[in-house]
Every structure is written in structure tokens, then in C-alpha cells.
Amino acid sequence: MKLAAVDIGSNAIRFQVSSVLDSGPRVIFKKMEYVRFPLRLGHDVFTTQRISEHSAQKFIKLMRVFKMLIELYEADDYMACATSAMRESENGAELAQRVKEETGLDIHIIDGKQEAELINQAILTYLSEGTYLHIDVGGGSTELNIYVNGKKTNTRSFKIGSVRILERSDSPAIWKEMEQWVKKQVQHHPGKITAIGTGGNISKIFELAQLKPHRLMSLKKVREISAMIEQHTLEERIYLLQMNPDRADVILPASQIYIKVMEWAGARYIQVPEVGLKDGIMLHLYRKNKSRKKVTFANLADQSQGKKTIKL
């Protein structure tokens, strides 16, 4: 089985095709193709509430390329999910319809709860006994989830993200609301809380910390790496720290969110698995198709006509 996932974020868009190997004791998703394209839809949306025509044209071209790759790899199923930028844009649904008409690619504009649920599917295998606070920081929103002994007990999505902070579109009231929510959860779950972080920025911070894979990263280390990054100019971050240009300017706003949430929760350590929304999409597609006969791409296109929401 071959599956394709498209993660349409506020800072970048990710595409992946994987071959599913499920004949052994565990399911393995073997990456066949991965593309990360730096189209910052959040820049338009968080300043003008709309996706500009220039960005829309680039977006349609990109979706056409992804549709062709899905066909060339003969993927059995695919899902394209758009998060905060497109769901908050005045013309997000209109753009998704244009993509459907011009390329045949279906885009699901998902809410914060659906986004958290998809990511949840990807991180469950990393959780053991105890209490975890999952922090997923995107360009336009932050999803927070509480897990107790492997089961999710609460979840909230907040309109605070790296691009939103960069564009000075974050609200002090939302920051306060997020702080109160985290502290309330801590009261309900006394004892040690371990953070688990997903998103490209925390992954880059973990890489810069030069820790061994699967090691916990301390809050102190997160602060140290953030302070080190701040001492470098944007050019130095790109050439010395080897960051993508669209990572170099948002990593500090993102680190601010991780640090604040960990401080509010009293979490001294954070686990950083290399998973995200696209991995959750893959798992969702695998479970959906596991007991089905092989679906051809042509049949899939026929089945997906007009479907703009997903049920998890």
C-alpha cells in the first residue's frame, strides 16, 4: 500500500509519499518522497485576513505538482489537510474549491480539534505511564493536549503561533487564556509532568542541542539554545546554523511558546519525537484502508468528489 499526505500549514507546506510495510510485528512507513515548500500563507492571512492572488497562484501550482506526484507514485489513498491559515482566511474555502476544479485535488480545511486528533495518532507510541503535556506549535496556532497513562484527557487549540507572533497578530488575551488553561490542567494532574513537543522549530532546537535520539531535553537546554540563536543574525542562522530562511525568522517566536508553556506547567523536560501532522495523516489513511481492497487512484478521485470535511 502506498499513501500520500499533504500538510498545508501557515509557514510551509509538506508533502510525503510512503510505502506501508505491515507484514512484520509493527507497521513501517517507508518514505518514498518528501517535499517541504516555504509558502507562508500565514503572512497574508494574519495581516489582511485573506490569501493574496499571488500566493493563491503559487499555491495552485504547488497542488498541481503534488497531484501529479500522487498519480506518478500510484498512491492508493491520499489526504490534504489545511490548518489555521486557510481556516481563518476569508477566501480559504474558495481557494480550496479552485484547487479542486483546476487540479482535482481535494483539500480538507480542518479545525484545531481535528488537527490535534491527527497528531495524537502519531505520538501515542512515544507515551508511557505518567502525565504528558503535548505542545504542537504551528505558524498560526498552538495545540495543547493532556495525556494520562497513554489516554488523552483534555485538549485545546489557541490562536498563537510562530508566524502570528512574527506578524504581531497575537493577542495578550489569548496568551493569558492559554496560561490559565495550562495551570488549571496542572492542578487537576499533580505530580511530574513531561512535555512532548512536535513541530519543525522544536525539532531544530533539539538538533542544535546535539542530544542523542530519544533523549529528553531539559527546559534549561531549550532556554540556552534559544538564547544562542538570538545572538545570531538572520544571515548567520541560515549559513552558520543551517536553517531554512523561513525557519530562521520564526524559530525564536516558536521557542517562546514552548518555554512559556513548559514554565506554566512546571515541566522540566521535553521529549521531541520526529513526527507531525503528516505522520498522523498517514496513520489515519492506513487504518482507513487496512481492511479494504486496493483502491485505484481513479476510483479514489471519484469517491472524494465534494467531500471537504473529515471524520476521525
Provide structural commentary:
- This protein is α/β, with parallel strands linked by helices.
- The chain folds into 2 domains: 2-112 and 279-303, ATPase, nucleotide binding domain (Nucleotidyltransferase, domain 5); 123-271, 2-Layer Sandwich (Nucleotidyltransferase, domain 5), CATH 3.30.420.150.
- The protein has helices at 41-48, 53-72, 84-88, 92-103, 112-123, 162-166, 172-188, 200-209, 219-230, 234-239, 245-248, 251-265, 277-289, 297-303; strands at residues 2-8, 13-21, 28-37, 77-82, 108-109, 131-137, 142-148, 151-158, 193-198, 217-218, 269-271.
- The strands form 2 sheets. It has a 6-stranded mixed β-sheet with strand order 8-7-6-9-11-10, with helices on both faces. A 5-stranded mixed β-sheet has the order 3-2-1-4-5, with helices on both faces.
- Strand 6 (131-137) and strand 7 form a beta hairpin.
- Helix 7 (172-188) runs parallel beside helix 12 (251-265).
- It is globular and about 50 Å long.
- Residues 293-310 have low confidence and may be disordered.
Summarize the structure.
The protein has 312 residues and is α/β, with parallel strands linked by helices.
The helix/strand class is alpha/beta
Compute the number of strand runs.
11
Q: Order of strands side by side in the largest beta sheet?
A: 8-7-6-9-11-10
CATH superfamily of the largest domain: Exopolyphosphatase. Domain 2
Q: What is the percentage of strand-forming residues?
A: 15-25%
CATH class group of the largest domain: Alpha Beta
Reading the helices and strands in chain order gives EEEHHEHHEHEEEHHEHEHHHHEHH
CATH topology of the largest domain: Nucleotidyltransferase, domain 5
Major beta sheet, specifics?
A: 6 strands, mixed
Number of helices: 14
Helix content: 40-55%
Rg from alpha-carbon coordinates: 19 Å
- Report the mean per-residue pLDDT as an integer: 90
Indicate how many domains the architecture comprises.
2
Looking at the structure, what is the overall shape?
globular
Can you name the CATH architecture of the largest domain? 2-Layer Sandwich
Q: Which segments are poorly predicted (pLDDT under 50) over 5 or more consecutive residues?
A: 293-310
